[in-house]
Design brief:
By secondary structure, the protein is an alpha/beta fold. It folds into two domains: about 140 residues, Aspartate Aminotransferase, domain 1, CATH 3.90.1150; about 280 residues, Type I PLP-dependent aspartate aminotransferase-like (Major domain) (Aspartate Aminotransferase, domain 2, 3-Layer(aba) Sandwich). It is about 35% helix and about 15% strand. The strands form three sheets. The chain has a seven-stranded mixed β-sheet, sandwiched between helices. Strand 14 and strand 15 form a beta hairpin. Helix 4 runs parallel beside helix 12 and helix 13 runs parallel beside helix 15. It starts with about 25 loop residues before the first helix and ends with a helix.
């Protein structure tokens, strides 16, 4: 056996660390190392302050290193570092469930805790199948996602997701159908929400005709598709999708891992778009990114399907969960994050800053290679034309150059994506605009 060699310089790109969603060769050529964070800024290994225009990975919307969260985590670690999740509970997770369901749209009254958005997606889909079996309709097993959708990287989420490069390497994992995406050519450069869109939701009728509603368990969509590049649903789309799910007795699941906690201008995307799902998946901003945690919120109707007063007291009604479900330290972080969310008025901050973000992005219209600009609330995206048949190259080059200029931006597919912290200043957004203008103008 070859002895492992520990590199004395931890900042060197190491073969020991297999990085997620990373272009290995490009990173090895130009490593981007983050060693600290402060408010809306990341700090690099060479001491530079880089504006965080995506709130980490959509998760640190309240700003980095919030002392309220750090102190709550430290207190919890000194009191109860871990508590078994199966057959036992602790006060923090009970309080968290109560506060989350009080904040969510009224029909969502129960919270099941996970460790990530990916686990939330898989959990909600498992609950959907189990719900129909409990209701005496075991044939309802099929799921429907949406093209350009993203539901994490576990088996079910990968299958229901609709971003091709995330799927093709792994082959067909589980059977799934997909609705068309909501990115219409005629909506290019729309500021905020486009109009109409019922016809896009009506494709569900075709899938019902193909499979019959008696075989369909649930439809899962993001209220706003984030990872595909902030694809904003037209005004009538989600309402029509809700009506069709009701018509055919199909559960509707909202993946709000990105849209939850003020990203779209209200507490949840369900609030922004005035459509309430049967289940809602959460993660990311639930703890402001400080500790991994996710949740699935369900209606009372779904929860009650598993409550059988005649069940023997030793029998488990839902055989599902994780070692770290409702972890005490994650619960403490989430409770502190909710305090920050409410006391610092993150919804109000989001609404106030949204017009400035809109102007910062749409003010780039007319620069070379930009084919679309989209935004809703504190989220936006720039879409680029392909170069030499490669749609990924320009966003990649722009993202790397932006980082060198003092701006962290997420590149994904043919887009640059933006979700600045709600604690950003107008000057932060103006600086972001100026760096983007400089970098994009120089792209080949």
């Amino acid at each position: 056996m070859t002895e492992a060699v520990i590199d004395p310089d931890p900042n060197v790109a190491s073969e020991a660390y297999w990085m997620p969603f990373t272009a290995r060769n490009g990173f090895r050529k130009d490593p981007r190392i983050i060693t600290g964070a402060d408010g809306c800024y990341l700090i690099t290994d060479d001491g530079r302050r880089v504006f965080d225009s995506l709130s980490g990975l959509w998760c640190c919307g309240f700003g980095h290193n919030r002392p309220e969260i750090a102190e709550a985590v430290a207190r919890q670690l000194k009191t109860l570092d871990y508590s078994p999740a199966f057959q036992y509970t602790h006060p923090g997770v009970v309080q968290l469930a109560q506060r989350l369901t009080a904040l969510a749209p009224a029909p969502l009254q129960h919270a099941f805790f996970t460790n990530s958005g990916s686990e939330s997606a898989d959990t909600s889909l498992k609950i959907a199948r189990a719900y129909w079996r409990m209701r005496g309709q075991p044939s309802k097993t099929r799921f429907i996602g949406r093209i350009k959708g993203y539901h994490g990287v576990n088996f079910a989420g990968t299958s229901l997701g609709g971003i091709g490069p995330n799927r093709k390497l792994f082959g067909q994992i589980t059977d799934a159908d997909h609705l068309p995406h909501t990115l219409r050519a005629e909506d290019a450069f729309t500021r905020g929400q486009p109009q109409g869109g019922e016809e896009l939701a009506d494709h569900l009728e075709q899938l019902v005709t193909l499979h019959d509603a008696s075989n369909i368990a649930a439809v899962i969509v993001e209220p706003m598709a984030g990872s595909a590049g902030v694809i904003v649903p037209p005004s009538d789309y989600l309402r029509r999708l809700r009506a069709l799910c009701d018509k055919h007795d199909i559960l509707l699941i909202f993946d709000e891992v990105i849209t939850g906690f003020a990203r779209t201008g209200e507490a949840f995307g369900a609030d922004t778009f005035a459509v309430v799902p049967d289940m809602m998946n959460l993660a990311k901003a639930l703890t402001n990114g400080a500790i991994p945690m996710g949740a699935v919120l369900t209606t009372d109707e779904i929860y009650q399907a598993f409550v059988d007063e005649d069940l023997p007291e030793h029998m488990i009604s839902l055989p599902h969960g994780y070692t770290y479900s409702g972890h005490p330290v994650a619960s403490a972080a989430a409770l502190a994050a909710l305090d920050v969310f409410e006391q610092d008025g993150m919804v109000e901050r989001s609404l106030k800053l949204a017009p400035l973000l809109e102007e910062a992005l749409h003010g780039l219209r007319g620069l070379p290679h930009i084919t679309d600009i989209r935004n809703i609330g504190m989220a936006g995206a720039l879409q680029f034309a392909a170069r030499d048949g490669d749609p990924l190259m320009r966003p990649y080059e722009a993202g790397v150059r932006c980082f060198a200029e003092g701006l962290y931006v997420r590149w994904g597919g043919d887009t640059l994506q933006f979700a600045p912290p709600f604690t950003s200043t107008p000057d932060d957004l103006q600086q972001m605009h100026e760096i983007l203008r400089k970098v994009i103008a120089d792209l080949r």
